[in-house]
Amino acid sequence: MDFAGAYSADNLRFLMEGLKMTLYIAFWAILLSFVIGCIIGVIRYMQVPVVSQILAVIVEVLRNLPLLLIIFFVQFAIPQINVFGLQFKFTVPAGAIIALTLFEAAMISEVVRAGLKSIPKGQVEAARSSGLGSIQALWHIVLPQGLRRMVPPLVSQFISLLKDTSLAVIVALAELMHNAQIIIGQSPNYSIPILLLVAMIYFVVNYTLSLISRRLETRTA
Amino acid sequence: MNKKRFSLLLVCMIALVTVLGACSTTTAPSASNGAGGTDSASSQLDQIKQRGKLIVGVKYDTKLFGLKDPSSGNVEGFDVDMAHALAKSILGDESKVELKEVTSKTRIPMLNNGDIDMVIATMTITDERKKEVDFSDVYFQAGQSLLVKKGSPIKGIEDVTADTTILAAKGATSIKNIEEKVPNVKVLEYDNYQDAFNALKAGQGDALTTDDAILYGMAAQDPNYEVVGKPFTDEPYGIAVKKGQTALVEAINKGLTDMKADGSYNELYKKWIGKEPESK
Amino acid sequence: MIDFSILVNYFPYYIEGFLNTILASVLALIGSFVLGSILAVFRITGVKPLQWIGTAYVEFVRNIPLLLIVFFFWYALPTFGMRLDGFQAGTVGLTIYTAAFIAEAIRAGILSVPKGQMEAARSSGMTYVQAMLHVVLPQAIKLVIPPLSNQFINLIKNSSVLTVVAGLDLMYFADKVNGDSYATVSAYVFAGLFYLVLTLPMSYGSHVLERRLAKSS
């Protein structure tokens, strides 16, 4: 074990570069999966015919596949699928964001749907009878209350997303875990110090997120 | 999810797979050119010249060929210098290179997906790979060998038996080669050479197999390990480009010929391998 | 695009990976259930040091990636003279990781059993451990089954990290099929179907279970 050697200034800077990539990927994937997940969740809650059923199938398949498989598939299999002359190809970071977004949006849509369903039907009916349209009732009555209840499960989903960015090592994305591996490659004496440090970095980032969520919960409750 | 939806889901999935399966029979021939098909109007070489930059896939974890140095942030090695030399030959400026990391597992998909113009990544020319990609002339002559911890009972390929655990990298030719030499040998595959070497250091296997040139790089990194025995295969390295890009292959081959003629190839070889290339 | 001959030619690979994935998931489920129960009890005993251990474990492990834990058992253990192969390191890593989530589920289950039950059991002469084992835990388990079945689905999906340490799981063999045949799309589509064969019925089952439990209570 060589803590001094492992924590050299160069190595620390290299890890920080990895952290930057991790946060960049996580930021976009969280943003996109939240928006898409909300849209899917609302469509399924409102039981829009046909669209709702199709989305149910897609969500169920994505939720039940390993993320590792999705990441690899998006990066290397999708560009080989040529549908009607259309072809999709992505750089490694873009592919990682897309794969994480697909998987997490499916998860988030379930959180959103459950949150909306937890609002008593009577409230919607009351709103409707007072002259609001169904979309207005959703927007003004159900969504604000539902969102509040969704905060804790949403944040824990975001934390999983941040952790899951590490799986992109398999497509050689230069994120935190990948850079940690390169440093460990220099000497086996670095493995424990580097793994401990990386664990602390993930912990600090994620624990901060969960503290923010607890603060939000107490404030909105 | 109720029972009806569950059965609907199953039906949809089966339908999807069948449809995709059916597609394959009709589109199979075009699928392979499909990768480059969309932009085949202008050749890859023209695109490179227009862009003014060569995008090259190299390894980041292979000492002597392509290794990322965390302190400088640079990737260094024979393959990397080769990329710069080709940029000089094709674009007239050796600095016009963008490097992207590939592993043995990801290099062919990345090439076919158009992420990179060419692969210079310790890639052996084989007949099977020729179905997937086009190769330049041989730019490096390697042979498969074994890396073991010093003092290991394994002194060469003849000591490898069905009880030996061999470590290798996913997608490398070395796996097929050793499985042919020693039927039923136990092989564990890792995502890249760094992981495989870490596995050897961690005692996960008895020997690591790949091309001798890569192994010498690992032995230089950690003196507790040594390359044993004579190379037991021929591994001619080629530069891979997308299938059908003949103009680009010709440009690369011209670059290689010029380098060999003006002596810069020998210099490069000496810089990384430490000796003159054996002329054959 | 999808070539069924890949499935036929590499069927033994897929089956070996499939069985190893099931084995790793089942072993990790049993291990993490035991470890998770212990941690959950630690957190509610009221004995401060035990509570601290339980809380620290759960908070720390839940906030770091599974891959990191697997790497620790794979890269770092040899430093202490111990060695686990890829399958073992992966399964131990899965167990350690999942235990944190199961501990939370069980704790929530135990807390939902009214306190009066524990007190009644204690006053009828049972020790704390006896009351826990015979009165509180059996009731808590009922509430814990739906989240547990979700964790099992997660375990099956997460077991794919074994591929990174050559753990011979389904994903590892999908990589092998891909490396051998270059049929990237087919290799991973079939692997995906094998995963779905496991996870979809489980997910369906847990929905039904959840609904039934919701009705009965």
From TrEMBL, chain A:
Its main location: membrane. It is found in: Cell membrane. PROSITE patterns: ABC_TM1 (PS50928). Residues 19-213 form the ABC transmembrane type-1 domain. The keyword Membrane applies. CDD domains: TM_PBP2. Belongs to the binding-protein-dependent transport system permease family. NCBIfam families: HEQRo_perm_3TM. This is Glutamine transport system permease protein. It comes from Paenibacillus hunanensis.
From TrEMBL, chain C:
Residues 18-206 form the ABC transmembrane type-1 domain. Its main location: membrane. The lineage of its organism: Bacteria, Bacillati, Bacillota, Bacilli, Bacillales. The chain crosses the membrane at residues 22-44, 56-77, 89-113, 151-173, 185-204. This is Glutamine transport system permease protein. Keywords: Cell membrane, Membrane, Transmembrane, Transmembrane helix, Transport. Coiled coil: none annotated. It is found in: Cell membrane. It comes from Paenibacillus hunanensis. InterPro entries: AA_ABC_transptr_permease_3TM (IPR010065), ArtM/GltK/GlnP/TcyL/YhdX-like (IPR043429), MetI-like (IPR000515), MetI-like_sf (IPR035906). The keyword Cell wall biogenesis/degradation does not apply. It is a multi-pass membrane protein. CDD domains: TM_PBP2. Pfam families: BPD_transp_1 (PF00528). Belongs to the binding-protein-dependent transport system permease family.
